[in-house]
Amino acid sequence: MKHYAPPLEKLIEQFERLPGVGHKSAQRLAFHVLSMNKEDAEEFANAILAAKTAIKTCSVCQNLTEGDKCPICSDPTRDPSTICVVTDPKDLIAIERTREYRGLYHVLHGVISPLSGVGPDDIKVRELLERAALDEVKEIILATNPDTEGETTAMYIARLLKPFGLKITRLAYGMPVGGHLEFSDQKTLSMAIEGRREIR
């Protein structure tokens, strides 16, 4: 037996489709939307539609943008000789927050995952290769996640980039700042040892 009116059931179902939102969270969100006044609800709905309509991918790096080029690719102070390859726009934002990197980016919009039916043609690899052929590019940083799919994707891209004669690097992984050796898993410690650097 249905507990809610069909429109409310439908709203709950739609919220449940969002990543990380379970049934109870979906119910809370749906009831919150119902508690909004009409103007706020319309503004909320219009914001979703406007974002879906206006946002597209940057013609250069594939980041999300409203114009043809994203603000990073349009910034003349960025270093065009370095491209940092990330899985999705959220990863780009995480790196930007460090304020340490001043090069450009390339967003893959996914990783190679045969189990999920995602192959190299389903992500933005071809566009990366086109950019790698430009004379100004000297280094490609592969910043995919250190999990199975991320490592597979990084190795695949590195193999394709080898003929270009570019410097290809991978983010170092290992001990988190403030972490303790005794609480680290074997994989993290192995990567920390492998990615060690000289103290000058």
Descriptors for this entry?
four-stranded parallel beta sheet, Helicase, Ruva Protein, domain 3, 200 residues, Dna Topoisomerase Vi A Subunit, Chain: A, domain 2, 6 strands
Task: Please explain how this structure is put together.
- It is built from 8 helices and 6 strands.
- By secondary structure, it is α/β, with parallel strands linked by helices.
- Strands 4-3-5-6 form a 4-stranded parallel sheet. Strands 1-2 form a two-stranded antiparallel ribbon.
- The longest helix has 17 residues, at 38-54.
- The model has no long low-confidence stretch (mean pLDDT 90).
Per CATH, which architecture of the largest domain?
3-Layer(aba) Sandwich
| SSE order, one letter for each helix or strand | HHHEEHEHEHEHEH
> How many helix segments?
8
Beta-strand percentage range: 5-15%
Stretches where pLDDT falls below 50 for ≥5 residues? Answer: none
Count of DSSP E strands? Answer: 6
Number of domains: 2
- The fold-level CATH name of the largest domain is Dna Topoisomerase Vi A Subunit, Chain: A, domain 2
Task: Give the rounded overall mean pLDDT.
Answer: 90
The rounded distance between the terminal residues' Cα atoms is 70 Å
